[in-house]
Design brief:
By secondary structure, the chain is mostly helical. About 50% of the residues lie in helices and about 5% in strands. The chain is built from 24 helices and 13 strands.
């Protein structure tokens, strides 16, 4: 069946899918107490207080669980050290905010202590910070803190600082609480909880007043209201922040900020290679998903990318602009296209002084195709022989692993894919040979063979596992849960809608939001 035969357009332009049926019911995993990641904490603070603040350089570190920081945030706890960092950050932020006369006048509104005025501030500001209305008891306690400090010090602003800092240290700000409300064997998220989940997915920050008003009106607990609000948010410029956050987590691009390469080996690798490589990848995703909403499989094969002067030099192409990033179209003769031709992936999944077919193969198989790879035995020797006259290329040096039965089960599939990227060195610069020997970049993904990185991108784009894997990542990121057997049917269904909908990532995000698993959590573990 052709794509046009598989879908039709409704009056509002939405794709109407046929022969697929509604999303299957699902039993979600038990709720977890999920902490804001560092990125979410910083963006929430910016949403509350505006740009220009000096933000803390360190709070509780994020942890990657099952490939996502967004899942690790629901598994790990805050250490005593982290508790101190949150406290320091809260007072630092509050002090700066109150020093901004415009913010203070617009948000607080009180020049001196007045119980009614303070309550109005706590009600309005607290609803955004906690992503729900504060209870009367919460308002009373915070007002008492402000009043006691003001009474003791004679400084109303100091009282406000303590009150604001108390909110910023509260679990209701630092954590995303998703208790839900009892409904058969699962719990339905209430409107406030849906608003928070929706906002951090689409904007990577707290809900705005319009979304909170929709939660208060009960508009987020039905398909029509949820669809309307999600589509409004996807037209907002903050949607770019949400897309960036999803792929920064899925691709582990945050690792580029601290990536280091051996300067004696890669003399052309600048200190800003990592951050600039990440920006190239994210700008390309913005263009593909947001600006044009094209077939997402083009991510693997597109010759268009965005580079600055440093990346242009690395790729051996003319810089499109003198400053910043500009759009270019890579020549087919260069052998580079798609995400697998970008320095972000190539440098991140390599060693400090060399390339790594094993790491790159693992990235392709686990991150792009969602295949499982068993860990190596605890006592196995993972070292690779040094290059010599007999084994000048990495392919030849890896033969020792592939011939060892203990290593072969992992290395044959990993290296068979990763060697397809051997024309790129450890930072992503193209090379035809290694140690004077011509590089053989052929390989196979399952039964699909390829001759080089150019063909490898097409093999992955054509694989049904690629589209399903992207769906899986998004669903797991959106719910903050490791996908269990009960969620497999809805993930499979979302993968089918992705394909029938022409591989529109925007459309898949909307379907994910409207799926039953997005608005529910399981029963509490006993």
């Amino acid at each position: 069946m052709s794509l046009l035969a598989a879908m039709s357009c409704g009056k509002d332009g939405d794709l109407k899918r046929k022969n697929i049926g509604p999303a299957p019911d699902t039993t979600a995993e038990a709720p977890v107490l999920r902490r804001l990641t560092t990125s979410q904490f910083m963006s929430a603070v910016t949403a509350l207080f505006g740009d220009g603040l000096v933000l803390p350089t360190s709070i509780e570190p994020d942890t990657n669980i099952d490939g996502l920081l967004n899942i690790g945030a629901g598994v790990t706890s805050v250490s005593p050290w982290g508790t101190e960092r949150y406290e320091d950050a809260a007072y630092l932020i509050a002090e700066q905010a109150l020093a901004d006369d415009a913010w203070r006048t617009e948000t607080v509104g009180c020049a001196t202590f007045d119980a009614s005025c303070v309550d109005d501030f706590l009600t309005s500001f607290g609803r955004r910070a906690y992503r729900r209305p504060l209870t009367d008891d919460e308002i009373d306690r915070l007002r008492i803190v402000i009043e006691l400090v003001e009474s003791d010090s004679g400084d109303f602003d100091l009282g406000l600082q303590y009150g604001i800092a108390a909110m910023l240290q509260s679990p209701h700000f630092i954590y995303r609480l998703e208790n839900g409300e009892e409904s058969a064997s699962q719990r339905d998220l209430n409107g406030w909880e849906v608003a928070t989940r929706l906002s951090f997915l689409l904007w990577n920050t707290i809900p705005d007043d319009e979304l909170l008003d929709a939660a208060a009106a009960g508009d987020l607990t039905n398909d029509e209201g949820l669809r309307k609000n999600a589509k409004r948010m996807m037209k907002d410029d903050r949607f770019r922040d949400g897309v960036r956050a999803v792929f920064t987590d899925v691709l582990e691009l945050y690792g580029l900020d601290t990536m280091s390469k051996d300067p004696l080996v890669f003399t052309h690798a600048s200190a800003d290679l990592g951050p600039n490589a990440r920006e190239e990848t994210l700008l390309g995703l913005e263009a593909l998903i947001i600006d044009e909403d094209r077939d997402f499989r083009l991510w693997m094969t597109s010759q268009r990318t965005f580079v600055d002067r440093g990346l242009a030099a690395l790729y051996g192409v003319p810089a499109p602009v003198a400053e910043g990033f500009g759009e270019i179209y890579l020549d087919a003769d260069g052998g580079r296209r798609g995400i697998l031709g970008q320095a972000s992936v190539l440098s991140l999944h390599a060693h400090s002084g060399s390339s790594s077919a094993t790491r790159r193969g693992a990235f392709v198989l686990t991150t792009l195709l969602c295949k499982s790879i068993p860990p190596p035995p605890a006592d196995v020797d993972t070292s690779i022989p040094e290059a010599d006259a007999e084994s000048p290329t990495l392919r030849l040096r890896l033969l020792s692993h592939q011939e060892d039965p203990v290593c072969a089960s992992c290395h044959v599939p990993l290296d068979g894919v990763g060697l397809g990227l051997e024309n790129f060195d450890g930072v992503g610069r193209w090379r035809d040979d290694e140690n004077g020997a011509t590089i053989d970049a052929s390989g196979a993904v399952d039964q699909d063979s390829f001759s080089n990185a150019w063909e490898l991108g097409q093999v992955i784009a054509d694989s049904p596992d690629f589209a399903k894997c992207m769906t899986r990542h998004l669903y797991s990121y959106a719910t903050g849960q490791i996908i269990g057997i009960d969620q497999e049917p809805v993930v499979e269904w979302l993968g089918s809608t992705f394909a029938i909908g022409g591989y529109s990532y925007q459309d898949m995000m909307l379907e994910t939001v409207l799926s039953p698993g997005f608005r529910t959590v399981g029963a509490f573990d006993e």
